[in-house]
Amino acid sequence: MNTIATEVINTERLDLLPLRLEHADEMVTVLADPALHTFIGGTPDSPDALRSRYQRMVAGSPDPAVTWHNWVIRLRDEARLTGTVQATVSHGGQEPTTEIAWVVGTPWQGRGIATEAARGLIAWLGEQPAQTVIAHIHPDHLASAAVATACGLTPTNTWHDGEIRWQRTVR
User: What is the pLDDT of residues 13-44, one digit of tens each?
Assistant: First the structure.
């Protein structure tokens, strides 16, 4: 299995920084709006719960056939964290497939940050062994559908847990 290290990804306005446990302190505020859970369910994490979740994420997947890559999004000119992107690479099949996701805090939405971060992530994935990039998007989540479209993903007829599978071949 060919695993790759999570690296810093720079875009025009953003730095995608590999997730560290200490990011939880700032991210708990970024992710505090309950509206962010409208389509994914649940509620915002408490500071302790977010630190615990980040600790598990930083430790990596317990499945040797799966690699987790997690980043926080830093808006360079504001010098602050604004969201996250992630890629889960499954090495079990003939070719690796990568499932991606993004979240941008409510105060920074509508500024193209999610699209820029997802494009940066997909460009980075295009340099890795990944060939197929997948995102699962709730059919009513128009903002995420717009991000996926801007990143070249297209919806499929496949549903998973009430969400539509979008995909793109990167290589």
Answer: 999 999 999 999 999 999 999 999 999 889 99
Rg (CA), the chain: 15
Confidence check: pLDDT of 130 > 80: no
Q: Is the dihedral of CA 30, 144, 101, 9 positive or negative?
A: negative
pLDDT digits 0-9 by tens, 63-117: 999 999 999 999 999 999 999 999 999 987 777 889 999 999 999 999 999 999 9
pTM of the entire predicted model: 0.94
- Structure tokens that stand for 48 in this block: 């302790």
- Tokens, residue 118: 């997802």
Residues 72-78: contacts with CB under 8 Å, at least 24 apart: 72/16, 72/17, 72/19, 72/23, 72/27, 73/14, 73/15, 73/16, 73/104, 73/113, 73/117, 74/14, 74/15, 74/16, 74/17, 75/13, 75/14, 75/108, 75/113, 76/13, 76/14, 76/15, 77/13
Range 9-169 has CATH code 3.40.630.30: yes
Q: Is residue 1 over pLDDT 50?
A: no
Residue 38 token pair: 């409208």
Helix (H) or strand (E) holding 104: strand 97-104
